[in-house]
Predict the structure.
Amino acid sequence: MWTVPLGAALVSATFASLLARQWLARRRPHQLAWTVALAMFTLAALATAEGVRAGWTPGLFRTYYLFGAMINVPFLAAGTVYLLAKRRWIGHAAAAVVVAAAAYGAVVLLGARLDAAYMSGVRGIPEARHAFIGAPLARTLSRYYSYTAFTVVVLGAVWSALRLRRQRAAPNAAHLQRLASGNILIAAGTFVVAAASIAIRLGRGSTSAVLFSVGLLAGISLMFGGFLRTRPRPAPAPAPGGAPAPSRA
């Protein structure tokens, strides 16, 4: 059971490392925002794996909830705004809002009361409505953060894909089509990850762990596949005699 979220953590960590390398090489802000988001996915998946394997503690649940249910998708959304906005200051403004919201959410979550006795007896993933004592603000913030950011990411990816598909007559049409299909995969992966979080409310015990873990792994894998399709292909090596080799792209 715990091996599935561990697999999701490995995929997410690989994805994050590739994004980090791109950011170090190009210093584009959307790459940094997405690197942070994928690092959060990794931490959330590792917390889930350990909680399912060895039992949940308040610390593990806070790590899972903060990085897996509250502030990770907003950082993906900030990266989307950076990528699509025509003015850099728009991206900066979105990033500032996300960082402030994330800091506030972290403070609220740290102050929330948790039912340690309930969590210690859960075999799968603790349900937030039972894990929190009372009606905490953390659950409300999680819903608003996630739903708003999810909408930004999906609409941004779909809009970008549709825009690229219209440019079929461009000289680099093959590359643009790869970008379009990659953006569609990223949007689909984001949708699957968001849907996986709903499984925690629908399932019980080990069932919720299976649904969430499989959805997380599938969603991140789709996003990773989309990212790989958007990466530029290496230039063809020169043919003998100095002429460039014909491209198959």
Summary: The chain is about 80% helix and 0% strand. Residues 12 and 192 are 14 Å apart (CA to CA).
